[in-house]
Amino acid sequence: MQLRYFIYVFLVFIAGLNACKNPLDGVKLGLKDPLQDGVVTYRFNDPAGNPMPSVNQVTIAGPDARQIVTTLNSTRYKLNSDGVLMVAPSPATVYSAQKPLRFSIVVEAKDYLTVIQPVIISDVKQQSRSVRRININKPPTTLNAARTTANTTVNGVVTATVSLGTTPQGTDADRATATLLAGTKLGDRDGHALDGNLTMVLIHTNARNGQATRYVPGGGIMSSVAARNGGASQGTMRFLSLVGSITLQIYDAQFQLATTALPAVPLTMELYQQAYNSSKNRVIQTGDSIPLFSYDEFTNQWQEEKPGIVRKNQQTGRLEYTVDAAKAAAYVVGWAEVICASGPVFKVSSRLSNVDVNYLCKLIDVATGNEVSSFYANANNGAIIRASNQSKNRRLKLQVFDETDAWGKGTKGGLIGESAPGLTCDQTPITINLGALPEPPPVTLEIKFSCPSGTKLDESLLPAIMKTQYSEVGQNDWNDLISVTRTNRKVVSYKLKVGRYYDFRASTDGGASWPLRQSNYLIDKSEWTLKIKADVYCK
Length: 539
Description:
Chondroitinase Ac, Chain A, domain 3, Immunoglobulin-like, mainly beta, 4 domains, single chain, 9-stranded mixed sheet, 6-stranded antiparallel sheet
């Protein structure tokens, strides 16, 4: 078989001067390099925590679907065991900002809403998206979904009125409905009419517990909100009180998504009567005007819409809110405040350099002494740490601890440094002294290839990149470890602790698959030399 196709060789690892088995023993290196230009990576997840479906139908739709392949230049599209799908333009495809590639990723599975993700590729930059998958029968708390079918003429005109309603789960009594009237004209983003059989989807999130913001776009944060009537952007906003959200999706048999509807589709949702009106400091009631925002997933654009009025349904006695949806999008109802997308900003002064672990940080409100948020950030000398999505006109200080996201507490363990106060929205860097932060011990890996007498290594034949990941034993919580390239075969990482056990895995196709898994392996020394006998890489 020619080298440009799959040719695998078993690596025999010999550790330094002793006979210890190496953690990556047994990996196969493929000589078919993965595509790297224009790669789009999807990470699918089920927000309810259900096991991901094992059987999935992946389809590439849209005008340029024929030019999209996997990262191994095949059309065998599939999700890996982590729920990851990677695609890229075929090597012979020519594309640019003036002539971009347009297509959609479609993922179907039993009992799940169909995922349709429109994509535009205009350059070689890689894209990454995290996409939720909703099980209709087992949705996450506070969320319900429903779907039905409809039909249109060749001109995109709906032939018969269709109504769709959600069924609440458990004790949640809030319902949502959509009515697609006969005569409604549906068009896609380019103005083309939807044709033939349609699927209509309705997703409703109520406000019956504090988790509701987890299931609306942005997790409760709206970036670059466009004002009504063409006004200036309101910047970044955060929901203070979420009353509910409702999402409408309509697509045809070719997975062409409707964007516009004429006349508008009325969407009505019942409201939790204890939902909080943050502008009046009381629960909602009939006659309340509640702000409305729409979100276009394709353009990642938030838009302020005309507020709606809370009304009481005379038949059911329930409070309701109606959205006239002139576009198929997500609609979120609630009160929000303008916040600082970034600031204050802190600049690290430390002894660390090229350390690949992140350290525990806490933002403290100077006025109250309360912790505002906690996160992990890089603490190398010169690193910039930005506070994000904070309320305006607050003074915050940053605390950094000797505790990492990789192995927990370090030798000192506690608070290492604290910054001077900074004002939210301010982009002026404030230096934080972390000189007392000790450098963690590194683990070094070097790969050496040996060739038979009379031959020498041909680096062009080596895999372009080999990626490795690690996890705590049995957790299946994989984290990037190191990447070895053709010319850089000696790497250092601070993510592992000598004396601990880990699970390892490796990939030579950019992470689309992970053929090697080494479980429950003890890291018993800080340096590894992996000697590989592989005649196929020599000439």
